[in-house]
Design a protein that fits this description.
There is one protein chain. This protein is mainly β. 4% of the residues lie in helices and 49% in strands. It is built from two helices and 33 strands. The longest helix is centred in the N-terminal third of the chain and has 11 residues.
Length: 407
C-alpha cells in the first residue's frame, strides 16, 4: 500500500499527487509500462503494468482509484471471446486490470466523464460509453456513414433518442488511423463530464461534412451533422469545449465556426461567420482561453476567434499547437513526423504579464498537463513545468522514450 501512503502524504502537504502515466520505449517496439509516478522524476511508485499494444490514455477516475487505457489484445484466457479487447479498466494502486472491455477494435481516445463512466473513441470512428465498475458497454454510437447521412442529419438535428441510444454494432475495420472506411480525420476534446468528437467524413479532392458526437456523465450519447461546416480532403476539424458557457465550438479551414449548446435533449447548431479573416491549414487543434476560441493549424499558425464579435486575428505565425494551463496560454510546434531544423520554441501568454519565450528555436512537440504539472517534449528532452509561469521544475531523463499522458 506504498502508493496510498504517498498520495495521502502529498495531499496533506498540499503537493501534487503522483501522476499516472505510461512510458513507451523509443520506436514503440516494447511494452508500455503504466504506473503511478513521481510527478518530477517520473520514477514508478509501486507496481507497474506492461501493456503490449498501448493506444491512448490513461484517464483517471475522479476518485483516483481507476484508470482507463486504450489498447488492443485478444481476450485473456478464461474470458468468453466476443471481440478484440480495445479498452482496459485498471486499479491504480495494484496496477491490475479489473475489466477487459471487448470493443472489437482499439480505443484511440479515452476519458472518464463521470465517477463510473468512461467514454472512448474507437479506431473505426464510433464512440462508446463503458460502465467502469462492471466493464459493460452501456452505449455504442453508430459507425460514421460518410458525408451525406440521413435527411434529418442534413437539417442539422441530432440522431438518437432522448436517452442517447443510437444504432450500431461491433467494428470490423483494422484502421491505421483514428477512423476508416469513408472517414478521414477525427478530433476529440474532454472537459469535466463531457467528451466530444468532431469527425470529417470523406477525403480526396472534394468537400465533406462534419459530424459531432457528444458523450456525457448522465450516460447519453448524442450526435449531430454540422451542415454549415465542410472540410476539404483529409482536413481535421477542431473541437473545443467551453465549459463556462456550456457549449462546444467546432471549426474547420474556412470562415465559419459552429456553436453547439450542451443543454437540452437534442443537439442544435448555430453558425457564426468570421469577421476580419478566415481559418486555414490542416491538422487543426483548438482550446478555449478566457472565453475565446484559439485555433492552431499546421502551416497556418495560431489564430484567436473573439466569441463575442466572431472576429479572427493571428496570434502567432510560427506555432501550430496550443494548450491552456494555470491560466496561461501555451503556443508551440505540436506533433510532427520529423525533427524540424528550426522550431517555434515555447511561447507563454499570461494576462498582465509580458509574453515569455522559452527554448529558443528548438522544436516543442508536446505540452501536456497532468497532475498539476506540464510535461513538455523539447527536442529529445523532457521538461516538467510550473503551469502558471512556465518555469522548469525538473528535467527527468527518459531519453527517446515516449511519455504517455491522458487527461
Amino acid at each position: 500500500m506504498q502508493l496510498v501512503a504517498v498520495i495521502a502524504a502529498a495531499l496533506a502537504a498540499g503537493s501534487p499527487a503522483p501522476v499516472v502515466a505510461g512510458v513507451t520505449p523509443d520506436g514503440g517496439s516494447g511494452s508500455t509500462m503504466l504506473a503511478a509516478r513521481d510527478p518530477l522524476t517520473l520514477a514508478p511508485i509501486g507496481p507497474a503494468l506492461a501493456v503490449d499494444e498501448f493506444h491512448s490514455g490513461p484517464s483517471v477516475s475522479p476518485d483516483g482509484k481507476l484508470a482507463a487505457i486504450g489498447m488492443s489484445s485478444p481476450p485473456p484466457p478464461g474470458v468468453t471471446a466476443i471481440g478484440r479487447v480495445g479498452l482496459q479498466i485498471v486499479d491504480v494502486v495494484s496496477m491490475r486490470v479489473v475489466h477487459h472491455v471487448q470493443t472489437g477494435i482499439a480505443a484511440e481516445d479515452v476519458a472518464f466523464v463521470g465517477p463510473r463512466r468512461v467514454a472512448a473513441l474507437l479506431q473505426g470512428g464510433a464512440v462508446v460509453l463503458v460502465d467502469a465498475r462492471t466493464g459493460a458497454i452501456s452505449r455504442r454510437g453508430a459507425e460514421p456513414r460518410g458525408a451525406s447521412g440521413a435527411a434529418g442529419d442534413a437539417a442539422g438535428h441530432a440522431t438518437g433518442d432522448a436517452t442517447g441510444r443510437t444504432a450500431g454494432g461491433a467494428t470490423g475495420h483494422a484502421a491505421a488511423g483514428l477512423a476508416s472506411g469513408s472517414d478521414c480525420f477525427v478530433h476529440a476534446a474532454t472537459a469535466p463530464g463531457v467528451f466530444a468528437v468532431a469527425q470529417s467524413a470523406g477525403g480526396g479532392s472534394g468537400t465533406a461534412a462534419v459530424r459531432l458526437t457528444v458523450a456525457g456523465a448522465s450516460g447519453g450519447l448524442r450526435s449531430i451533422a454540422l451542415a454549415g461546416l465542410r472540410t476539404r480532403g483529409c482536413a481535421e476539424p477542431a473541437v473545443a469545449i467551453d465549459a463556462a458557457h456550456r457549449r462546444i465550438l467546432v471549426a474547420t479551414a474556412g470562415s465559419t465556426v459552429a456553436e453547439v449548446a450542451l443543454g437540452g435533449v437534442q443537439l442544435h447548431a448555430r453558425y457564426h461567420p468570421l469577421r476580419g479573416g478566415r481559418l486555414a491549414g490542416t491538422r487543426t487543434n483548438a482550446t478555449i482561453w478566457r472565453g475565446d476560441l484559439v485555433v492552431g493549424a499546421r502551416g497556418a499558425g495560431v489564430r484567436v476567434v473573439d466569441t463575442a464579435t466572431w472576429k479572427v486575428r493571428t496570434l502567432d505565425r510560427r506555432a501550430d499547437a496550443t494548450t491552456v494551463a494555470g491560466g496561461a496560454l501555451y503556443l508551440f510546434d505540436g506533433p510532427t513526423s520529423r525533427d524540424l531544423p528550426r522550431g517555434a520554441g515555447l511561447r507563454i501568454v499570461r494576462p498582465g504579464h509580458p509574453d515569455r519565450r522559452r527554448f529558443g528555436t528548438t522544436q516543442v512537440s508536446a505540452v501536456d498537463p497532468a497532475g498539476g504539472r506540464l510535461y513538455a517534449r523539447v527536442g529529445r528532452a523532457l521538461h516538467v513545468l510550473e503551469p502558471a509561469t512556465g518555469d522548469t521544475l525538473a528535467s527527468p531523463s527518459l531519453g527517446a522514450a515516449r511519455l504517455r499522458l491522458g487527461d
